[in-house]
Amino acid sequence: MKKIIPILSILMLLSLTNQKEEVVMIPKEAIRFRVIANSDSTEDQRVKRTVKRGIQQELYESVKNASSIEEARKITKGKLGEYQEKVETILKEEDQQDTEVKLNYGQNYFPEKVYGGVIYKEGYYESLVVTLGDGQGKNWWCVLFPPLCSVEAESKEQASEVEYKFFVKDLITKYFK
Hints:
Layout: H1 4-17, E1 22-24, E2 31-36, H2 42-63, H3 69-78, H4 80-93, E3 101-110, E4 113-115, E5 118-120, E6 123-132, E7 139-145, H5 149-158, H6 167-176
Parallel strand pairs: 1-5, 2-6
Antiparallel strand pairs: 2-7, 3-6, 4-5
Helix pairs in contact: 2-4
Protein backbone atom coordinates (compact mmCIF):
# COMPACT_ATOMS: atom_id res chain seq x y z
CA MET A 1 0.00 0.00 0.00
CA LYS A 2 2.83 2.42 0.87
CA LYS A 3 4.47 1.77 -2.52
CA ILE A 4 1.25 2.33 -4.47
CA ILE A 5 0.71 5.93 -3.29
CA PRO A 6 4.09 7.22 -4.59
CA ILE A 7 3.59 5.34 -7.86
CA LEU A 8 0.12 6.80 -8.30
CA SER A 9 1.49 10.26 -7.45
CA ILE A 10 4.15 9.92 -10.15
CA LEU A 11 1.55 8.70 -12.65
CA MET A 12 -0.64 11.67 -11.83
CA LEU A 13 2.22 14.13 -12.33
CA LEU A 14 3.19 12.47 -15.61
CA SER A 15 -0.35 12.66 -16.91
CA LEU A 16 -0.56 16.35 -16.02
CA THR A 17 2.76 17.23 -17.64
CA ASN A 18 2.14 15.07 -20.70
CA GLN A 19 -0.89 17.05 -21.84
CA LYS A 20 0.05 18.80 -25.07
CA GLU A 21 -1.64 21.62 -26.90
CA GLU A 22 -3.50 20.48 -29.96
CA VAL A 23 -2.78 22.14 -33.30
CA VAL A 24 -5.99 22.88 -35.17
CA MET A 25 -5.98 23.65 -38.84
CA ILE A 26 -8.75 25.95 -40.02
CA PRO A 27 -10.17 24.45 -43.23
CA LYS A 28 -8.83 25.99 -46.45
CA GLU A 29 -12.42 26.57 -47.54
CA ALA A 30 -13.11 28.95 -44.66
CA ILE A 31 -13.68 32.65 -44.12
CA ARG A 32 -12.54 34.16 -40.85
CA PHE A 33 -13.97 37.23 -39.17
CA ARG A 34 -11.77 39.47 -37.04
CA VAL A 35 -12.20 42.71 -35.06
CA ILE A 36 -9.04 44.59 -34.06
CA ALA A 37 -9.25 47.19 -31.28
CA ASN A 38 -7.75 50.66 -31.54
CA SER A 39 -5.51 49.93 -28.53
CA ASP A 40 -5.32 47.75 -25.45
CA SER A 41 -6.92 50.38 -23.23
CA THR A 42 -9.91 49.18 -21.23
CA GLU A 43 -12.25 51.49 -23.18
CA ASP A 44 -10.96 50.43 -26.61
CA GLN A 45 -11.26 46.76 -25.68
CA ARG A 46 -14.83 47.36 -24.47
CA VAL A 47 -15.68 49.09 -27.77
CA LYS A 48 -14.14 46.17 -29.71
CA ARG A 49 -16.35 43.70 -27.85
CA THR A 50 -19.42 45.88 -28.45
CA VAL A 51 -18.67 46.08 -32.18
CA LYS A 52 -18.07 42.32 -32.29
CA ARG A 53 -21.39 41.58 -30.61
CA GLY A 54 -23.19 44.12 -32.75
CA ILE A 55 -22.03 42.79 -36.11
CA GLN A 56 -21.43 39.10 -35.42
CA GLN A 57 -25.10 38.12 -35.47
CA GLU A 58 -25.71 40.01 -38.71
CA LEU A 59 -22.72 38.31 -40.35
CA TYR A 60 -23.83 34.91 -39.14
CA GLU A 61 -27.38 35.43 -40.38
CA SER A 62 -26.02 36.48 -43.78
CA VAL A 63 -23.97 33.32 -44.41
CA LYS A 64 -25.60 30.63 -42.29
CA ASN A 65 -27.51 29.18 -45.24
CA ALA A 66 -24.67 29.50 -47.76
CA SER A 67 -24.03 26.11 -49.31
CA SER A 68 -20.50 26.86 -50.50
CA ILE A 69 -17.59 29.17 -49.84
CA GLU A 70 -18.24 30.88 -53.18
CA GLU A 71 -21.77 31.74 -52.06
CA ALA A 72 -20.52 32.95 -48.65
CA ARG A 73 -17.89 35.14 -50.41
CA LYS A 74 -20.48 36.68 -52.72
CA ILE A 75 -22.84 37.42 -49.83
CA THR A 76 -20.10 38.88 -47.61
CA LYS A 77 -18.55 41.04 -50.37
CA GLY A 78 -22.01 42.24 -51.42
CA LYS A 79 -22.80 43.46 -47.92
CA LEU A 80 -19.53 45.22 -47.05
CA GLY A 81 -21.23 48.63 -47.26
CA GLU A 82 -23.99 47.48 -44.91
CA TYR A 83 -21.44 46.10 -42.46
CA GLN A 84 -19.47 49.37 -42.58
CA GLU A 85 -22.65 51.34 -41.81
CA LYS A 86 -23.55 48.97 -38.98
CA VAL A 87 -20.13 49.40 -37.33
CA GLU A 88 -20.30 53.18 -37.73
CA THR A 89 -23.78 53.19 -36.14
CA ILE A 90 -22.50 51.11 -33.21
CA LEU A 91 -19.58 53.53 -32.74
CA LYS A 92 -21.98 56.50 -32.75
CA GLU A 93 -24.11 54.81 -30.10
CA GLU A 94 -20.94 54.29 -28.05
CA ASP A 95 -19.96 57.97 -28.47
CA GLN A 96 -16.96 56.83 -30.55
CA GLN A 97 -17.99 58.46 -33.85
CA ASP A 98 -14.46 59.89 -34.28
CA THR A 99 -12.98 56.39 -34.39
CA GLU A 100 -11.99 55.46 -37.93
CA VAL A 101 -13.29 52.12 -39.20
CA LYS A 102 -11.68 50.03 -41.94
CA LEU A 103 -13.26 46.89 -43.35
CA ASN A 104 -11.02 44.66 -45.41
CA TYR A 105 -12.13 41.52 -47.17
CA GLY A 106 -9.34 39.38 -48.61
CA GLN A 107 -6.17 37.59 -47.53
CA ASN A 108 -5.26 38.98 -44.10
CA TYR A 109 -2.55 38.00 -41.64
CA PHE A 110 -3.51 36.28 -38.39
CA PRO A 111 -0.94 35.71 -35.64
CA GLU A 112 -0.70 32.34 -33.90
CA LYS A 113 -3.20 31.99 -31.11
CA VAL A 114 -3.46 29.49 -28.28
CA TYR A 115 -6.96 29.20 -26.89
CA GLY A 116 -8.24 26.45 -24.63
CA GLY A 117 -5.21 24.25 -25.28
CA VAL A 118 -5.65 24.56 -29.04
CA ILE A 119 -3.06 26.22 -31.29
CA TYR A 120 -4.34 28.14 -34.30
CA LYS A 121 -1.47 28.57 -36.76
CA GLU A 122 -0.38 31.98 -37.97
CA GLY A 123 -0.70 32.84 -41.61
CA TYR A 124 -2.71 34.63 -44.25
CA TYR A 125 -6.36 33.65 -44.35
CA GLU A 126 -9.38 34.71 -46.35
CA SER A 127 -11.22 36.96 -43.95
CA LEU A 128 -13.29 40.00 -43.18
CA VAL A 129 -11.29 42.23 -40.86
CA VAL A 130 -12.79 45.20 -39.03
CA THR A 131 -10.06 47.54 -37.79
CA LEU A 132 -10.99 50.21 -35.27
CA GLY A 133 -8.82 53.35 -35.15
CA ASP A 134 -5.11 52.54 -35.26
CA GLY A 135 -5.72 48.79 -34.94
CA GLN A 136 -2.97 48.44 -32.32
CA GLY A 137 -5.00 46.55 -29.74
CA LYS A 138 -5.84 42.95 -29.04
CA ASN A 139 -8.17 41.32 -31.49
CA TRP A 140 -11.03 38.87 -31.48
CA TRP A 141 -11.71 36.40 -34.28
CA CYS A 142 -13.74 33.36 -35.26
CA VAL A 143 -14.57 31.37 -38.37
CA LEU A 144 -17.44 33.01 -40.23
CA PHE A 145 -17.81 30.28 -42.86
CA PRO A 146 -18.41 27.48 -42.26
CA PRO A 147 -20.34 29.22 -39.48
CA LEU A 148 -18.33 28.41 -36.36
CA CYS A 149 -18.78 31.82 -34.69
CA SER A 150 -22.15 30.75 -33.34
CA VAL A 151 -20.71 27.44 -32.15
CA GLU A 152 -18.43 29.34 -29.78
CA ALA A 153 -21.38 31.18 -28.21
CA GLU A 154 -23.48 28.02 -27.95
CA SER A 155 -20.64 25.95 -26.51
CA LYS A 156 -20.03 28.50 -23.74
CA GLU A 157 -23.69 28.20 -22.75
CA GLN A 158 -23.46 24.40 -22.79
CA ALA A 159 -20.12 24.28 -20.96
CA SER A 160 -21.86 24.31 -17.59
CA GLU A 161 -23.59 21.05 -18.58
CA VAL A 162 -20.30 19.23 -19.27
CA GLU A 163 -18.92 16.96 -16.57
CA TYR A 164 -15.13 16.68 -16.44
CA LYS A 165 -13.40 13.63 -14.97
CA PHE A 166 -9.77 12.98 -14.21
CA PHE A 167 -8.72 9.37 -14.74
CA VAL A 168 -6.06 9.12 -12.00
CA LYS A 169 -8.30 10.85 -9.45
CA ASP A 170 -11.08 8.39 -10.28
CA LEU A 171 -8.67 5.46 -9.76
CA ILE A 172 -7.53 6.79 -6.40
CA THR A 173 -11.11 7.38 -5.32
CA LYS A 174 -12.16 3.92 -6.47
CA TYR A 175 -9.40 1.96 -4.73
CA PHE A 176 -8.56 4.06 -1.66
CA LYS A 177 -11.89 5.18 -0.21
